[in-house]
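User: Structure please.
Assistant: Input sequence and predicted structure:
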Amino acid sequence: MYLQLSQRAGSKGIVNKNLVLLGPQPLVDHTIVFAKKLSFVDNICLTSDSTDILARGKIHGVDTIHRPSNLATDTSLMIDTLIHTANTYIHKRTVKPEDLVILLLQPTSPFRSIIDGVFMFKQYVKEKHASVIEVTESREHPSETVWLDNTTGDGCFVYKDSDSTNRQDYRSSYFVTGSFYMASYISLIKHKSFFQASTFFHKTSIDFNIDIDTYNDLSLSRIILNSYPDADWVHCTK
């Protein structure tokens, strides 16, 4: 299995987000350290348009691939970056496309469980799912969210699961954590997405799933790290 760690230099939320410190390490390092603990991963590749971020990959001894500027804009699609990186990797390593399985780990989701990763890989192999994606139970149910016109203040429910306003009557809903995406190279080329008809959604075993996008997210992540420094879903070098 080939693993891609995806990084982009620009960020409108946090400047140089992937290089900010979370504990003693830059954010990107947490995911590299985690990736090295996955026994089913054969090769690790870090892709970015930033030489500073790629330098972190070289420090940890993983493959690095420079991302073209046209794939590093605010409107660039992750799937296009994945395919570019995979194609470069296939050429570099002379790997057969049909043998390549891609695991995408986004460094903005630093808290992950090895148990979850291993289970997802076994599920992918055993059940031959097109893809496997990690989810967590939603903190806010979609039946309690509304579309809102910021000019008029008018709104409507995004989704209504039940006529009842009792939360206990709602079906469970889940949110994609951003921590794990797994699929074959061939299926990604065909569907241009990890979300496919036979996608398996794995409910994470941990409670702290954060996709760091703002300084508030970063502050909360630092609080969690300081509160649970020895948890098995924390991966950093002390």
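Residues 139-172 form one domain.
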